[in-house]
Amino acid sequence: MNTGLGIDAGGSRSRWGLVGSDSAVIAQGSVAGFSALQMTDEAGLQRVDDILTSLALEVSVHGRVRSVLAGVTGFGGMHEGTSQLLHALLAKHLRLAGDLVVLSSDIELACHAAFEACGGYLVYAGTGSSAGFVDDCGQFHRAGGRGGILDDGGGGYWIAIQALRQIWRAEDESPGCWVDSPMALALFKEIGGSDWLQTRRLIYGGSRGQIGQLARAVGAAAESDPSARAILQGAGHELARLGNAMIARFGLRPLALAGRVPELHPSIEQSMRESLLPGTDLRRVNLQTHIAAARLALRSPR
Prior knowledge:
Blueprint: E1 3-9, E2 13-20, E3 25-32, H1 42-60, E4 67-72, H2 80-94, E5 101-105, H3 106-114, E6 121-125, E7 129-134, E8 140-144, H4 156-173, H5 182-191, H6 196-205, H7 208-212, H8 215-221, H9 226-250, E9 255-258, H10 266-275, E10 282-284, H11 289-299
Parallel strand pairs: 1-4, 4-5, 6-9, 9-10
Antiparallel strand pairs: 1-2, 2-3, 6-7, 7-8
Helix pairs in contact: 1-2, 4-9, 5-8, 9-10
């Protein structure tokens, strides 16, 4: 049977789906997240190699892959040599000829899963955040998605950093005040302690995905902690900025909101709606990007 493999690799996890020639789903699963940005040093390259080894092992249980389409965080604009290396790793682990492996950015792939060409904009908020649009010529356009150091406003990493910055600034002014903060209590529970060394170890030694996972603790504290709710409302404003940027460039069209961040708390979507340009049709969507990629992998001409 002809089978297509789709991969949606993000900072927190990498989802994969396998479909047959009839487009029916054969199997799906997930492994650890990875980014193309990790492949700039030996340790990061080894980590990606290990993850792809696990992914290929899981997939191989369900049969041989004919072709693969992978959307990878950080892929757009990466150095050509790094792109070629990632391409070669996928081909090696999946035992495919190079022309049967296609790479894309995760947000471009998600746009194709959300709309037909020119149909609307996608704002995606996971570990990072970005917006995308595919025009009627098939050209992909984006806003945001520049990583946690520069931006990624409204993404899980951004939410976690905003929360920890606020907590530790408060500790500078009033040591021990964290015990009265539901948000700090929730975050320190996830980190494994309230000592600065433990926070520092995670922030400067952990991955973006690991840090982004802390956003769940901020969401859990939002009902009892106004500071947590304010951060989540700020995330909604940041996500609206991405949508408004696309509308300003290409005109009013439906806007889809996807990713795990909007699931953290209703205040995120509410504040986003309040900040969008008048007349914007905002829709929450649950994308199965890995499945859409698998079907596209089978349809793509070789």
